[in-house]
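Fold this sequence, please.
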Amino acid sequence: MDGGLTKEEVDEHASRIERDGYTIVKNVLSLDEIDEILSDLMHLEAELGIEPHKNVFEGTKTLRAYNLMVHGEFWKLAVHNKVLPIIERILSPQCLISSLSSIGILPGERAQPIHADDQVIPIAKPHAPVVCNSMWAMTDFTEENGATRIIPGSHKRDHNPNFGTAYESSAAVMSAGSVMVYDGAMWHGGGANQSEARRTGIAMNYCAGFIRQQENQQLGIPRERVRELPPRVQELIGYSVYRTLIGHVDHGHPNKLLT
């Protein structure tokens, strides 16, 4: 991993997210890193017997592998120095990993319904960011192969989209190795894959330290596995305390459970 973002670059990306709801960080991963991740992902899908789900939201021609924190070195994406500083600027350094999963959109898949990642959280909109997510392009994201459809500025609306309603959107086109970081309130959805090749992305998602994580990290990741991870990853998983109060265990720090 080479040098991370400068303060000025973090400021610029954060300003775009605040204004438009998203930003794209280019050339985060090298071609060699992409090849290694894709190889690991293909082996994992075969090992786990991953098959498409049978609902329009997850996709009937989309392969999804969940809880990637327990597998291989996918955790490295969580603390990448060209992405995490942006997340921390939007949510605060006391943010948490909400979920880590892969999304392989196969040829012939239809567009995913437009949604907001924070719409299940029952708080009035618009509101300060409580979810900030990232989509890592493991292949080129194009209009044809199902690049994420986005509605810039929608994170400022006072309501959520109606499920299944067609909305005017644009494609978040980006090259393999780039990462889209976005406010979880921005309306978006996976695009239709009208190409002959698979479109693969990894969703590395975060939430504020006072919000419940999408994947139950403490139960989903065996403690033996957590002990193998770097301290910063352990904190992001939830072995940390938000503002000295939220997340403690018998009034003590949860990382004591790892020692």
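Residues 82 and 131 are 18 Å apart (CA to CA). The chain has one domain: 7-228.
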